[in-house]
What does this fold into?
Amino acid sequence: MAVYLDSRNAFHRDGSANSLECPHCAAVAHMSLIASPDFAQLKALRPNETGLVLSCDSCNQPVFLRYRVREYRGDQIEFYPRAQEVEKPPESFSFNYLPEKVAAYFKDALGCYSNGLMIAFPTLCKSTAQAVFADLGERGKLRIFDQVAEVQKLGEIDDTTFNIVRRVIFDSETNNADPLPIVTRAEAAVLLETMKDMLYQAYIRKGKLRKALSMRRFFAEQAEPHPDESFIVRAMDQDKTRT
It folds into this structure.
């Protein structure tokens, strides 16, 4: 895989994927190159990193990528093939059935995750969990403990990673001598999905089920004849029989 800029300002991404997840519309779409660095300027300044601008073919919004320079040569500048996305798609989640305080903490946690703030992210996840436990009480916390343990089993997550997740969610006391861990991106991804599952099981599943049952009951009651209407129908049938 070769990624380089030649002396004619032509940017080459031989073998690189031309489709990315757009940070604006969240579609996995083809990206068209619309602006690349100037060869002469890069040669003169010799920065360690540079960037280019793509356009999402789905929504036509600009998408920025950053490349690290591997080597400056006479007629081309070679880059490391893996680009860093400057903007990432925002994490989405349904907050409809969450208590206000829980939703507020988790919205900020999602913002930290999307922007790569790996110190703030576990802290806000812990604040979210504490708000949930305060809302549901001790029995609710015990139920969530079992649900979180099931996530590890279903996801086949290794103990080292999941111990970090448990510590963030369930450790009630942290102090300066034993602060929350700075998680890696991979560990943060596991923590994120565990938090989403925890909130879904605690609030969203129940809310959706109750709403569905309420709608079913409403339409069932509409279909049932009213007792007075049933009496009138029977009376009319008897009249027809007599005649």
Summary: The radius of gyration is 28 Å. The mean pLDDT is 86.
